[in-house]
Amino acid sequence: MFGSIVSEDFYHAYSYTTTAISTVSNALLIYILLATHVVHVGPYRYLLLTFSIVDVIISFVHLALIPAIHMTKFGYIYWGYRFLRESTAVGVWAGLTWVLLFYQTFVLLAFHYVYRYVMLCSPEWLSWFRRRPWRNWLIVTFVADVIFVGGIFLACLFGFVPTDVSRKAFAPVLRKVYNIDLFASNAPGFLGIVYWTINEKGQKQWIPFSLFIIGCVCFLFFTTALIMLACIMQIFKELRASRFANLAPATKRMQKQLFRTLLWQTVIPCITSYTPLAMVFLVPLTGIPLGGFGTVFIMSTALFPMLDPYIVIFLISGYRKALIGLLANVIKPTLGQASHQVARPFTDTNSQITTMNRASYA
Question: What does the UniProt keyword field contain (predicted)?
Answer without folding.
Answer: Membrane, Transmembrane, Transmembrane helix
